[in-house]
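Hypothesis: this fold can be encoded by more than one sequence.
Test: take the structure tokens below, design a sequence, compare later.
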């Protein structure tokens, strides 16, 4: 080996990769909401969270309805869908007890 790992991140990751239609992007834009914000709200709803505004609910619904395609990605345990706060905290605790490699960097041993 000519390299070592000076930085390693352990834990879990869970997320969704989705592609929006052009119409979906335009609809969110007409609402004054960015795709990033709508995706965040949609993710919150998917995991059982709540948002108190009509704008957030409508943007989340538009984001979900206008997806051209979507798939879930997971490293480690997946959080419970629609879970209560205590279930989500239990998931977070479980990932701390059984962490997986999430990210790392490599450097040349010549740099030592």
């Amino acid at each position: 080996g000519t390299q070592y790992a000076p930085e390693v991140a352990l834990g879990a990751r869970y997320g969704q990769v989705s592609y929006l239609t052009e119409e979906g992007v335009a609809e969110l834009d007409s609402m004054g909401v960015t795709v990033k914000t709508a995706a965040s709200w949609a993710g919150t709803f998917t995991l059982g969270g709540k948002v108190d505004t009509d704008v957030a609910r409508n943007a989340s619904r538009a984001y979900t309805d206008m997806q051209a395609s979507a798939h879930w990605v997971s490293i480690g345990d997946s959080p419970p869908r629609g879970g209560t706060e205590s279930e989500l905290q239990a998931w977070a605790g479980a990932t701390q007890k059984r962490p997986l490699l999430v990210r790392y960097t490599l450097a040349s041993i010549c740099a030592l």
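The CA atoms of residues 10 and 101 lie 5 Å apart. Residues 3-111 form one domain.
Hypothesis status: open.
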